[in-house]
């Protein structure tokens, strides 16, 4: 595969305005992961606010990552391991609080499952807590209440001009100590020095041995610009500011028009050829799915032919030690499903419609059967596959017909 990492901003990019992942975007991202591309969610949100999205995208099954707090943490989605972390020295918090009060701003930071603030009534702070499913804890003496090193602090105000003035002052005053940037017109974020999405993405790339040319990034905000500039292929959302668009190689549709799905379909899925499908990676990633549970392994893939193996063991046999017909049908559907997925267009999805099998002989425990799927019909709305299952001595066990429906993503 040309790309190994797909890096996605979240709010305004992955999510639509209802803060949801659309069905079309979900289907495209699941498909691209099946093709061997790992997804990185890169967001200013806290880690806890990204975990439900990572779960919905099945990043834990496909070896994906979370880059949270605008780059303060890298988390492995499968086991929660913290691969990288930077935090603010707690001794700097009183100064931040002093400046916030002097300007009549509010201030907040994140704990493990709380949002700690000096103003629980602020509408933007309440919205942030709700968005990330955090409990609000109000502390009048904000800096005294913080007995930990936070990843970031955020100052909040409706007075955008005043926030920009403090930003300009702090860029001079805190240079080399802390970094500041606006993430929203009403938010001024403070993070450890040198932290942004691009620098942290660079750390992840180095750890994984991934080059710039193997990374594609999609974003919509000013905080995404450095990330877009680092990636080998950069995509700006259709609703992004012009200053963001000029930094990108490609401009897709807006987040309300499935812009992420359209970009993935055009730039990744449309370029996939059967000979490039990473079967070893697909087999490894399927360990938590039905494939893994039954021990199914892909061994060959082309546009017209798919092959896979499955052991006859305690997972796939009947009580008397012979191959279970249901497991055989699951093997056939697995083979035909990949075949149709290779053949369909980037904006299409595959849905199993019918499977019927003739079981002509038995396979016994200890053997490994081989399924050979060949396409019989490839129409605009349906594919028909014939899947023959053989023992290790090439004795025919079953001949199975699988019909897949090909549907446009919505």
Quick overview of this protein structure:
With 410 residues, the protein is an alpha/beta fold.
Protein model, in words:
The protein has 410 residues and is an alpha/beta fold. The protein is 30% helix and 29% strand. The protein contains 14 helices and 20 strands. It has helices at 23-34, 47-56, 59-62, 93-102, 123-131, 142-145, 160-173, 197-208, 225-230, 242-245, 259-267, 279-285, 290-294, 325-343, and strands spanning 5-8, 38-42, 65-68, 73-76, 82-85, 106-110, 114-117, 135-138, 153-156, 178-184, 187-192, 215-219, 233-236, 250-251, 297-301, 305-311, 348-359, 368-378, 382-390, 396-408. Strands 5-4-3-2-1-12-13-14 form an 8-stranded mixed sheet, with helices on both faces. It has a 6-stranded mixed sheet with strand order 8-7-6-9-11-10, with helices on both faces. Helix 1 runs parallel beside helix 11 (259-267). It starts with a strand and ends with a strand. The model has no long low-confidence stretch (mean pLDDT 93).
List keywords for this structure.
410 residues, alpha/beta, 20 strands
Dominant shape = elongated
Number of strands: 20
The assembly state of the depicted protein chains is single chain
Strand content: 25-35%
**Low-confidence parts, pLDDT < 50 over ≥5 residues?**
none
Number of H- or I-type helical stretches: 14
Largest sheet: 8 strands, mixed
Termini separation: 26 Å
Structural Rg: 25 Å
Overall average pLDDT: 93
Physical arrangement of strands within the biggest beta sheet = 5-4-3-2-1-12-13-14
Please estimate the helix content.
25-40%
Structural class label: alpha/beta
